[in-house]
Amino acid sequence: MSPARPGAAPHVTVVNGTDPFVVTIENHRGHHWLGDEPLAAGGADKGPTPTELLLSSLGACTAMTVRMYASARSWALTGVEVTLEFNPDGAPDGGGNDIRRRLALQGELTRAQRERLLDVANKCPIHRVLTGKIRIESALVPP
Description:
Blueprint: E1 12-16, E2 23-27, E3 32-35, H1 50-72, E4 77-86, E5 99-107, H2 111-121, H3 125-131
């Protein structure tokens, strides 16, 4: 994959080879990682599941957004830990899915600062994507 050009839209390429569920993932900046399914689901357990990758995206965005906001205000935030669970109480009766997100904020922060950072977490870009309207266009590429 070639290096990213300035202003290029973020994108990844996912390739499945000979292992049933192992996929290699490469982003437009040349980073590589794996995805897979657990052994119990027929995978090789060589990487996170697609659901775990989705949760990790939200968690990473949350932590980074909260850190940026606190840093811009010189708040005493020394660490952020985000724990996420997918459908922690099982699939909802009415359909859809639930994500439970818990933030542990380290540092000498006031109650008001902590509450503001929770509000900021709910506005991180990936949170907005997941709670907004999503359109997915799919097409086959000629062989």
